[in-house]
Design goal:
Length: 226
């Protein structure tokens, strides 16, 4: 089991925030899953029915969405899960096809609205911390370009640097790939998002993964509270 802890700086900067951790080993991610694709179509249809007639203002009034919007607005950003949900409901777009482990997270995100990153545990190095960004922090983005991180953001870092930022997403070193067999999902919830919502999200991700890899082992499922 991977050891992950939160810094005092994170707790001081984000009182009331919650981090959800789900670590799964023995997972299968090398080929597409018809069950996952079927479940995607079910979720898309459910979302379109659930939010029929919604406008952007209505989406932003959803309790969990409202808390993420408040967080992102502090940094003059828009919550990307909001945009993904709008694209499915208002524009008829499908959920993306990446890989079963990544798709499991996307499916849960648009359903629960809880922001989550997925990492390959074998690509994380040394101690892993939930932290807050400071002056001079930088993320190597998934496209290989460096990005200066604004101070005050919730981040995860290991011995090689920042692995994920709420505002700027994941690095290009540790994301889940088709070779991943040991995965870590990290849910980032700002103050105001109920811990129960984070727990429900982690259960949903695990359920989707188990539909692809029934023998998967749950190494840990826990919450870190600020």
């Amino acid at each position: 089991m991977l050891a992950i802890s939160a810094t005092d700086e994170w707790r001081a900067a984000h009182p009331g925030a919650t981090i959800g951790l789900l670590e799964l080993s023995g997972v299968e991610n090398t080929r597409p899953s018809s069950r996952v694709n079927e479940r995607k179509r079910e979720i898309e249809a459910d979302l379109r029915e659930r939010y029929k007639g919604f406008t952007r203002k209505d989406f932003l009034a959803l309790p969990v969405m409202a808390e993420y919007d408040r967080y992102y607005t502090r940094f003059n950003k828009t919550y990307h899960v909001q945009l993904q949900l709008e694209s499915i409901v208002l524009k008829g777009k499908p959920l993306p096809n990446v890989s079963p482990l990544v798709d499991a997270n996307f499916m849960a995100e648009v359903d629960t609205l809880v922001l989550t990153a997925g990492h390959d545990v074998d690509k994380l190095v040394g101690a892993v911390f939930i932290d807050v960004s400071g002056d001079g922090d930088q993320l190597m983005q998934m496209d290989g370009t460096p990005k200066a991180i604004r101070p005050g953001d919730m981040i995860m870092r290991d011995a090689k640097g920042i692995c994920c930022s709420i505002l700027y997403g994941q690095d290009n070193r540790s994301p889940i790939s088709v070779e991943t067999s040991h995965a870590l999902y990290v849910a980032y919830a700002p103050a105001g998002v109920p811990a129960e919502a984070v727990q429900a999200h982690l259960r949903a991700v695990e359920e989707h993964v188990r539909s692809v890899s029934p023998p998967v082992v749950t190494e840990q499922q826990q919450l870190l509270l600020a």
